[in-house]
């Protein structure tokens, strides 16, 4: 049985009140992870929508001979989408339910609840002098409520808007401290639930990244030729958390409240977040904020150095980053894998039509205030994600191009390696000792035969290793690490002094110093070689010539070998004492390099890898075993030809990356059309759900239903077309998922039974 992981990097947009819809989607992401854990552990099919996902995983196993595990391990969000990402991360790590967040969205995400006590009108006659203006604004012909709000809820929306408009003026109407309390209430309610089985594999990293906007900003240096010391104001302030499967909590309670409050601090509605607000919450509720100073130094070191923390003001992350793809892309580096990985970026866009509305042809002249508002707010907040998606697409295209180069080189490389080893009969009977000897011989031969090309290859390889070492060292420094370039410069100066300024030997090939350095520190080469070997086990290559059991035996050996290397590229593998050496890297780079070499001990790991491969490949038929061995031993020739083409991405678990969207437009099994056909929060410029509980319930239910449909599609697509789950089976699974979601919500009692029953009838009419 083929073992495979579907890893999801989830990107949650800012969407104002459509965050309620996104919460419904993220709840299904959690349910899918729960089903995946149960399926992996051989547990009975669970109740609710996880039962439908469990059936899907069984169908994938039956039709595609693939045992699939689904792991959402990167979560990126901004604005209210950042709040959803924070709670989902906590749930994935601890196995707890998202129901407390559901209650927060349905019961508290209401304008009447969010208005600050001191700002709300005291009685119906408050600001009575403004009443005619309010009434005229809300009822005049062509007003925004009449144009954008459904008739049956206009009076409710007008009433709440009237109270909002008669609240305090020239100051945010909503309470910042009240919002922080609501977030803390939901986190507390979540923590009070008994933890379930962890949904992350043991010690697998879970990365959470949310964006905020530093209103005042800080001075950041510019790398220009002149003038020296040029600076600019930087306002982007990301907040990141990393935890590992098996950890008890994602982060300190106060830090999660801080991050959620900051990223969702919509300008004008909430006051900017200041650190004093969270300090006051901690004091008011009698809980501790351990490592407070450490957290602040980590996320805003410039303000710590400037000693101006008291004046920091954070506002909504979507002001500058409306779709945080870049943050999720950055988290892809250095992730361990013990089996084949299908990496997906999945982004939730509740209302794609809203984002392209202004791009339509419109002959009307742009007015004075329209131009100002668009330039200052609307256009930056809705900036397309095309740049990030094109970056991913270019990477995938480059990966396919490199595969083509490798395929074209294969006959010549195999002939060269065959001749180099003298057509040895022992090539058909590998053991660890022979593999070690053959590897070194092939590697030196490739270097010597590369000629002038070896110089550029060696320099690119050396630079990549130093860059990787700098990343490892920087990750090990918890507080205020030096700039990446500073660490690279310190390491390079030391290594140049050790004879590594020139990497080639006079007679060709690598110098003795370079060989020693590469053998001690070059994990990248080792992992690239194993990934190429794993790709040769694909059905369209050598893997298609093998019996399924033999193929999986070989694949398992390769990924177990790969895991030995990838874990050595994690800062936590270096041990707690490594941080002390890392902190002194600028003063004593030799000590930190020695510490890395000792802890990695590649000299001992390489024979273990050779032994795993000798065992795993030894049971294969002679012809297929020989092909794979020639690939493994010939990898130095491939690497010399392709390394300089790989760029910053390298060959990693995300080769290639696929991108999937979840939106109302993509989920038409129950009701087709755009967001307007299903969502109510899109009314009143996407603020609609803040003025109606019925709207929030509607959008939450559709979020779960659309999330279920798209997650089933995405999960099933990991098989490709050659062994796809039949359409009728998928349709039945979707139907079961929809009905399970609606039944769960009926039992929970938070949503209108009338709406649930209407949706059940729609499901029955469309899917039987």
Give the gist of this structure.
The chain has 768 residues and is of the alpha/beta class. The protein has helices spanning 19-40, 49-64, 80-94, 99-108, 111-114, 131-139, 144-148, 154-165, 176-192, 253-263, 275-284, 292-299, 301-306, 325-330, 352-356, 368-381, 386-420, 432-449, 453-476, 484-500, 512-521, 523-535, 548-566, 578-583, 589-600, 602-618, 622-633, 635-646, 683-686, 693-716, 727-748, 753-767, and strands spanning 2-12, 66-78, 205-221, 231-244, 314-316, 340-348, 658-662. Strands 1, 2, 3, 4, 5, 6 and 7 form a seven-stranded mixed beta sheet that branches.
Task: Set down the secondary structure blueprint.
Elements: E1 2-12, H1 19-40, H2 49-64, E2 66-78, H3 80-94, H4 99-108, H5 111-114, H6 131-139, H7 144-148, H8 154-165, H9 176-192, E3 205-221, E4 231-244, H10 253-263, H11 275-284, H12 292-299, H13 301-306, E5 314-316, H14 325-330, E6 340-348, H15 352-356, H16 368-381, H17 386-420, H18 432-449, H19 453-476, H20 484-500, H21 512-521, H22 523-535, H23 548-566, H24 578-583, H25 589-600, H26 602-618, H27 622-633, H28 635-646, E7 658-662, H29 683-686, H30 693-716, H31 727-748, H32 753-767
Parallel strand pairs: 1-2, 1-6, 2-3, 6-7
Antiparallel strand pairs: 3-4, 3-5
Helix pairs in contact: 1-2, 1-3, 1-4, 1-30, 2-30, 2-31, 3-10, 4-9, 4-30, 6-8, 9-10, 17-27, 17-28, 18-26, 18-28, 19-20, 19-28, 22-23, 23-26, 30-31, 31-32
């Amino acid at each position: 049985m083929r073992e495979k992981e579907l890893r999801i990097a989830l990107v949650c947009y800012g969407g104002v009140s459509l965050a309620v819809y996104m919460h419904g989607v993220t709840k299904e992401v959690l349910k899918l992870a729960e089903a995946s854990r149960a399926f992996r552990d051989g547990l009975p099919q669970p109740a609710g929508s996880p039962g439908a996902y469990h059936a899907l995983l069984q169908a994938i196993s039956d039709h595609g001979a693939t045992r699939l595990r689904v792991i959402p391990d990167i979560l990126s969000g901004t604005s209210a989408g950042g709040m959803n990402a924070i709670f989902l991360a906590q749930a994935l790590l601890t196995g707890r339910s998202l129901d407390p967040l559901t209650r927060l969205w349905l019961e508290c995400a209401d304008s009447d609840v969010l208005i600050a006590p001191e700002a709300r009108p005291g009685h119906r006659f408050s600001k009575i002098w403004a009443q005619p203006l309010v009434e005229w604004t809300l009822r005049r012909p062509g007003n925004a409520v009449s144009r954008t709000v459904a008739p049956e809820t206009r009076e409710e929306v007008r009433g709440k808007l009237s109270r909002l408009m008669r609240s305090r003026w020239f100051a945010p109407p909503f309470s910042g401290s009240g919002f922080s309390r609501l977030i803390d209430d939901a986190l507390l309610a979540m923590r009070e639930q008994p933890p379930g089985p962890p949904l992350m594999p043991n010690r697998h990293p879970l990365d959470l990244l949310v964006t905020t906007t530093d209103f005042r900003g800080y001075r950041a240096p510019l790398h220009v030729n002149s003038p020296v010391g040029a600076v600019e104001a930087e306002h982007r302030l990301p907040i990141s958390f990393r935890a590992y499967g098996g950890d008890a909590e994602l982060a300190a309670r106060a830090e999660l409240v801080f991050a959620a409050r900051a990223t969702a601090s919509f300008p004008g509605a909430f006051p900017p977040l200041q650190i004093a607000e969270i300090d006051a919450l901690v004091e008011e509720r009698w809980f501790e904020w351990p490592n407070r100073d450490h957290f602040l130094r980590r996320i805003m070191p410039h303000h710590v150095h400037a000693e101006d923390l008291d004046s920091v003001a954070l506002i909504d992350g979507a002001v500058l980053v409306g779709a945080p793809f870049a943050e999720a892309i950055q988290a892809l580096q250095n992730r361990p894998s013990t089996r084949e990985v299908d990496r997906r970026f999945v982004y939730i866009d509740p209302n794609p039509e809203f984002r392209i509305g202004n791009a339509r042809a419109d002959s009307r002249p742009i007015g004075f205030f329209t131009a100002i508002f668009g330039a200052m707010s609307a256009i930056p907040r809705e900036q397309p994600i095309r740049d990030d998606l094109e970056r991913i697409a270019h990477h995938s295209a480059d990966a396919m191009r490199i595969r083509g180069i490798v395929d074209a080189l294969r006959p010549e490389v195999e002939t060269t390696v065959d001749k180099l080893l003298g057509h040895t009969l022992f090539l058909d009977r590998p053991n660890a000792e022979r593999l070690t000897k053959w590897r070194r011989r092939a590697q030196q031969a490739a270097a010597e035969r590369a000629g002038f090309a070896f110089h550029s290859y060696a320099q690119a390889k050396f630079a990549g290793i130093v860059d990787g070492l700098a990343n490892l060292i920087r990750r090990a420094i918890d507080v205020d690490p030096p700039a990446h370039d500073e660490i690279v410069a310190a390491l390079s100066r030391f290594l140049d002094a050790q004879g590594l300024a020139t990497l080639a030997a006079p007679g060709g090939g690598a110098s003795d110093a370079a060989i020693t350095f590469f053998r001690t520190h070059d994990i990248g080469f080792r992992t690239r070689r194993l990934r190429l070997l794993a790709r040769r086990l694909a059905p369209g290559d050598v893997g298609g010539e093998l019996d399924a059991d033999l193929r999986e035996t070989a694949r398992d050996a390769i990924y177990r070998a790969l895991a030995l290397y990838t874990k050595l590229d994690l800062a936590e593998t270096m041990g707690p004492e490594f941080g002390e050496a890392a902190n002194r890297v600028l003063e004593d780079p030799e000590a930190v390099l020695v510490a890395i070499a000792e802890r990695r001990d590649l000299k001992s790991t390489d024979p273990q890898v050779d032994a795993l491969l000798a065992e795993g490949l030894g049971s294969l038929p002679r012809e297929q075993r020989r092909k794979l061995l020639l690939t493994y031993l010939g990898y130095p020739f491939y690497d010399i030809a392709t390394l300089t083409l790989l760029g910053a991405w390298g060959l990693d678990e995300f080769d290639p990356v696929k991108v999937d969207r979840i939106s109302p437009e993509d989920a038409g099994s129950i009701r087709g059309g755009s967001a307007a056909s299903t969502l109510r929060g899109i009314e009143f410029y996407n603020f609609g759900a803040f003025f109606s509980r019925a709207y929030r319930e509607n959008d939450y239910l559709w979020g779960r239903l659309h999330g279920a449909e798209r997650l089933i599609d995405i999960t099933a697509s990991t098989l490709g077309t050659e062994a796809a789950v039949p359409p009728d089976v998928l349709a039945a699974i979707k139907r079961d998922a929809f009905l399970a979601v609606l039944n769960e919500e009926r039992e929970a009692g938070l949503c209108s039974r009338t709406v649930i029953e209407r949706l059940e009838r729609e499901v029955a009419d469309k899917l039987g």
